[in-house]
Structure formats: structure tokens, C-alpha cells
Amino acid sequence: MTGLVVRDLRYAYPDGRRALDGVDLTVAPGERVAVLGPNGAGKTTLVLHLNGTLTAESGTIAVGGVTVGKATLRDVRRRVGLVFQDPDDQLFMPTVYDDVAFGPANLGLRHDALTARVEAALAAVGLPGVGERAPHHLSLGQKRRAAVATVLAMEPELLVLDEPTANLDPAARRELATVLTTLDLTTLVVTHDLPYALELCPRSVILAGGRVVADGPTAELLADADLLAAHRLELPFGFDPTLRRR
Amino acid sequence: MAGGHAHAGGLHHAGDTAVHRLPAEAKVLATVATVLAVVATPRDALWAFAAHAAVLVAVVAATRLPPGAVVRRMRIEIPFLAFAVLLPIVGRGPRVDVAGLALSQEGLWAGWNIAAKGTLGVLAAIVLSSSTPVAELLRGVERLRVPRVLVAIAGFMVRYLDVIVGEAERMRIARVARGDDPRWLWQARATAATGGTLFVRAYERGERVHLAMLARGYDGSMPEVHHHHAPARASLLAAVVPALHLAVAVTAHLL
Q1: 3-state SS of B28-87?
Q2: Between chains, do B227 and A86 touch, taking CB under 8 Å as contact?
Q3: Between A142 and B103, whose confidence is greater?
Q4: Strand A80-83 relative to strand B95-98, pairing
């Protein structure tokens, strides 16, 4: 069984502008893949298709063998955990506990099973014991990890993060990376933060003009200066991807 | 990002007194009952108001609230007191002479009525909000069977007040940084535009929050996430306070 299969996905915005123009992408279970692309490449649009928030004109998406569609929406939303870019959008309840419990409670969990699920999710992101805190008392890095916990509590098969490093300071970036590498989940990291892609994801795809234009080992893609330049992707000053060895 | 904590501690005054430990729902009911008892007290039973005040001051002391903070928070009442002061001046009916001013007798009683009952009510509300964290207060009213969707709306308000105030503050700083210094009404254009932008941003955030809710299986009804119910015995203590107030009100009626 495969983790994620996207076949020939096409979507146009209501104003007729083409956002996705035949996206093909296969992600194996347990794999971590970065989806790279400049702003406006269709990354967030692709993300919103993965759990059926947006409905494609044509093409199919399957998560863990379940095809995304109206009839499977509930099931798909349990299987796909989306972490949105702004944690203030994702953490909407008065306390962190309530927020992490929101998803599993919607799945029907109650009492001790619910509490156990919430505590496990908070521990997994390195935030044990912050349940009673209000989200606006957390630092941005803590908020981002709490947002990851809110979807982990639903025990998803596929974790999708939209620009996870936006506005994070270096220490918070590292803490988030540590959490994501220990989770051992099929993960899609949507970003234009190329060093982060290299750190987290052995494989990357480049999304440009609504389609996947490159797919390969992250280190190889980042070493291809012409390919990056053709798609408005740039490495930070002084960063050499070939020097990096684990 | 890390800023905007102006309301953080907000109304709650952390502590570990018997009042703090009471279940939130018991405190909500006790507060409502106290206010009703105070309102039901006849306005000419002056001794009864002294008794009400004594009970509430005792509760404030038991909650170990700093008196200065309580007085500062009572300032919220000032607009209502201003109205109460106006009544004896504009009131009709027989006049009495107070310090050289001919004041309406009926107006004096009406003003006293508003001032006394308002002050006692505000005091009761301050005890409730100071001794109960907001999240606990929301859970309390949820346990009192207030529809979960109403509790959720109140919760969203609490959650996003800080976010929106922070956003407004950043926009104000950006305006002032570019030389905006509104002093007069006709200079309010930029401020008004900020208000409009803020509304649109808040609206868009609402849509994104809704998306995030749908992504986690929201189907139109808020799920129950707390299942803890306090034992009835714990709430009994909270009933003592409104019982005292009720006794005062009833006695005042009988005398």
C-alpha cells in the first residue's frame, strides 16, 4: 500500500487562472518529501486538495489506498494531518489541551482515551505539560509545535506542513526539525526554505507552473544551479549543499 | 509575534484560596444568585446594603485579592455612576435641600439605588473573574448546559482578542512611523482606513480558522472535550454566599 498517490491533478481558480496543471506525485509510506517552489507555484493549492478542502477539476488523489472524494471526506481528514502556515489560525481554542483534543473528539474519542491521546501528542512534539496554557502565551516555535500536535492527536497517516519554518528563529527551526525527524510519519514538507528541505527530506520535488518539473534526491536538486534559477529558487548566501555530509 | 500579551494575565488573579478552588460552574451560579438577591433588596433598607457589602468584602478578603487592584477594576462602573449622579438633578417631584442644592427626593433614591446595586454587582463579578481562569470559566458555563456553540463563540472572542489587538497595535505603530499624528476628528481618515483593513483581515482569519477546523473533522457541532464533573459537595460551599445575600434581601422585605 502506498502513502500518497496524486495522478494528473488539475485545478483552476474561480477567475480562470490555472493553479494546478497535471500534478503527478507518489510518496512511499514513511518517506519524507519536500515540495519546493517559489510563492505562487501552487503549493498551498496542492495542499488543500490533499484533504479534500478544494475539489480538483480532474485527476485523483489517494491516501493510504483511500481515494479523496465527497464520500470519503471524513476518513480522508483523519488520515491527512494539515499543519497550516499561521499557527494562530490552527490554535483556536482557549487552551492548548482543548485544541489538541478538538480533532480526536470530532472522531468520537471521549474520557480517558481522549486525555491519553492529547498527552501523547503533546509529548511527541516536546511540549508535555503545556496543556493548560493559553495558545497566546506560547512562543511562535511552541505554537508551531502545538499545531503539529493538534493533527498528531488524530493519528494521521500523512503529515503535511505548509511553510513550517516561516518566521521561526534558528533555535525554533532546529527544535521543530528534531520533532519531525523523530515522528517517523509519511511527511510532505511544503517550503521554499531549501536548507530545511535538505536537512529533513532525502527526496524533493519542484512544483512550478502547476506541475512537478523535477523529482529527485534533495542534494542533487539543490546542486543544480540552473534548475533552481529557472524556477525562482535560491540558496541562502554562502550555503553549499554539496558540503553537507551527515 | 511574541508581543501582544497586554491581556495575558488579564482579569485572573492567580491564587490558591478556597474561593479559587471552587468549581467554576458553582461560582457562576453563586454570582448570578448574589446579583439577583442584591437587586431584589428594597432600596430604602440601608442596613441591608451594608450587610451585602460586608459579605462581599469578606469574600474579597477570603480570595486574597489586593484591595488596590479591586478598586482599580471597579472603575469600569464610572459611566453608570455618572448617570446615577445626574438623576437627583434632573429628577421630578418634591425637592430636598442638600448643601445648598435643591435635589429631587425621588432622584436621590433612584441614584442611590443604581450606585449601591451596581457597585455590589461589579464587586461580585470581580471576585468571579479574578478567582477563575477564563478557560475554566468557559468550561464552567458549558457544564451548566449553556449550548456549546455559544461557549465556543465566547472562547473564540477570548482567543482572538489578543491577536486582533496585537494586529491593530502593529498597524498603529506603522501609521505613526510614517508621520500620522491624528488629533482632530477630520484627521481620522487613516485611523478609519485601519479599522476597515482590520475588519477584512479578521474576516479572512475567520475563514482560515474555519478551514483549519474542517481539516480536523469539524462537522458543525463543537465536540465535548472535558468530562470532569466536580462533586456536588465542592459546590455547596459556594452556595453559602448567595444564601447569606438572599437572607438579607428576604429580611429587608419582611421588616
Answers
A1: HHHHHHHHHHHHCCCCCCHHHHHHHHHHHHHHHHHCCCCHHHHHHHHHHHHHHHHHHHHH
A2: no
A3: A142
A4: unpaired
- Measured between CA atoms, the residue of chain A closest to residue B4 is A136
Residues from chain A that touch B138, judged by Cβ atoms under 8 A, are 94
**Residue A195: which of A242, A151, A157 has the closest Cα?**
A242
B1 vs A contacts (CB less than 8 Å): 140, 167
Distance from CA of A201 to the nearest CA of B (A): 24
Q: Give me the phi and psi of A33, to 5 degrees please.
A: -120, 135
Q: pLDDT tens, A139-191?
A: 999 999 999 999 999 999 999 999 999 989 999 999 999 999 998 899 999 99
Nearest to B205 among A89, A136, A151 (CB): A89
Taking the C-alpha atoms of residue B124 and residue B35, their distance in angstroms, rounded to an integer, is 7
pLDDT of B17 higher than 70: yes
- Does the structure show a pLDDT above 60 at B3? no
Q: What is the pLDDT of residues A69-105, one digit of tens each?
A: 888 988 999 999 999 999 999 999 989 999 999 999 9
Per the CB < 8 A criterion, the answer to whether B131 and B19 are in contact is yes
| ipTM, interface predicted TM-score of the complex | 0.83
In chain B, residues with a C-beta closer than 8 Å to the C-beta of A137 are: 5, 8
Tell me the sheet residues that pair with A189: A34, A161
Interface of chain B toward chain A, CB-CB under 8 angstroms: 1-2, 4-5, 8, 134-135, 138, 155-156, 158-160, 162-163, 205, 208-209, 211-219, 223-227
Q: Which of A179, A206, A111, A26 lies closest to B227 in space, CA to CA? A: A111
Of B137, B118, B134, B123, which is closest to residue B28 (Cα–Cα)? B137
Report the distance separating Cα B60 and Cα B15, nearest Å. 12
Amino acid at B203: Y
Instruction: Tell me whether strands A32-36 and A58-63 are parallel, antiparallel or unpaired.
Output: unpaired
